[in-house]
Known about the structure:
16% of the residues lie in helices and 9% in strands. By secondary structure, it is an alpha+beta fold. It has one domain. The protein has a two-stranded antiparallel sheet with strand order 1-2. A hairpin with an 8-residue loop joins β1 and β2.
Amino acid sequence: MGKLDLDEVTYGWIRNTMELSRIALSENLRGQIDANPMLEIEATIDMEFDADSNLLSPFSPIEETAGVH
């Protein structure tokens, strides 16, 4: 059986492997991120799931509001 608690799961979401300027990483990697001067945390977000328990893209909220002023 897989891990059910997201605090215990290490994951990363890379939208485009050709463009690594923005990626989403699990909170349990924060120590490693903070220790790397080449990385910057621009926001923290809660991971969300749809009605079928599929992980939703963490980039959707950013994309939807990017053109709105």
